Amino acid sequence: MAFIDYYKTLDISKTDSEKEVKAAYRKLARKYHPDLNPNDKDAEKKFKEVNEANEVLSDPENRKKYDRYGENWKQGKEHERAQQAQRSQYRQSNQQGYSNSGDDFSDFFGSMFGGAGESSRPGRNPQFKGQDYNAELHLELKDVYTSQAQILTVNGKKIRITIPAGVENGQVIKIKGMGAEGRNGGPKGDLYITFVLNNDTQFKRVGNNLYSNVSLDLYTAILGGEVVVDTFDNKVKLSITPETKNDTKVKLKGKGFPVYKNEGTFGDLIVTYQLKIPSELNEQEKVLFKELQNIRKGI
Predict the structure, then answer these.
(1) Helix (H, G, I), strand (E, B) or coil at 92
(2) C-alpha–C-alpha distance, residues 75 and 14, integer Å
(3) Which residues pair with 205 in a beta bridge?
(4) Per residue in 22-55, pLDDT tens?
(5) CB under 8 Å, gap of 24 or more: what pairs does 87-94 form?
(6) Residue-wise DSSP of 157-195
(7) Measured in Å, how far apart are the chain's first and last C-alpha atoms?
(8) Going by DSSP bridges, is the β-strand pair 269-276/225-230 parallel, antiparallel, or unpaired?
(9) pLDDT higher than threshold 60 for residue 112
(10) What is the pLDDT of residues 246-263, one digit of tens each?
């Protein structure tokens, strides 16, 4: 896999603060969010890359390793130990009156990166983290409105995880230590889960906000009144101001989607009124509308 520059992915510099990293991530996550770019494979790929970059650069410890070791940041400690061991062996070789050959050098780094030339001699078996696993979890949007437990089967092993409310489509989370076994006593790899959410509701989700369209009959729009509106988990009654125009938007604060890992906090629901023009009028209705038209014209 080619090396990915996470700083370039988020369009930031190495000197940017943690706050600036978060701001850049939020901006790009909104830009490439699958809900705003339906059926756009490039945007979906970019959204995953942005999430991956944020996973590393938003974590101070991981960012420190990444800045120091670059593409080998996950094996940073092993790389450092291997270099120290090589330097120690080189000093011992000089003290004994001989130097390492090119074959020894290749053999040493072959073992470090899992190459075919791995040696079984003492001191040549550094520990390595196990391979990471990747999996997709397909859910309905309503499934992530509340936190819930799920049992997954990964490589024949069942694991129980808790999915926090508010995860997004395409979001990737890491479960530490659920990957392959490490080598030479090294730590296990991690499990990366990508969420794939199907939305078959009447609501459109953008971040933590929900959007819906509500039909409004002409008479209520003109005279005012009340209308019952669906929220994601309930219904609310709204007052309609007389002479409400088509495409009028109303924000219902706190009636949106849960904020990820921020229990009790919700986005907003934005309702757009769409006027419904009456059809199949009877003769009496036509006469009344004609009278209204004449009144407006001053006839």
Answers:
(1) helix
(2) 20
(3) 210
(4) 888 988 988 888 778 878 888 888 888 888 888 8
(5) 89/123
(6) EEEEEEE-TT--TT-EEEETT-SPPPBTTPPP--EEEEE
(7) 78
(8) unpaired
(9) no
(10) 999 999 999 999 999 888
Q: Read off the tokens for 45.
A: 């790929």
Cβ atoms < 10 Å from Cβ of 288: 12
Residue type at position 176: K
Based on its alpha-carbon atoms, the radius of gyration of the chain, rounded to whole angstroms, reads 30
CB 178 within 8 A of CB 159: yes
CA angle (106 as vertex; 102, 107 as ends), nearest 5: 115
Say which DSSP state 258 is in: B
Q: What is the mean pLDDT of the chain?
A: 82
Domains of the chain: 128-199 (2.60.260.20), 204-297 (2.60.260.20)
For the entire predicted model, the pTM comes to 0.56
CA distance 201 to 131: 38
Q: Is 240 helix (H, G, I), strand (E, B) or coil?
A: strand
Contacts of 196 (CB under 8 A, 6+ apart): 136, 137, 138, 139, 169, 170
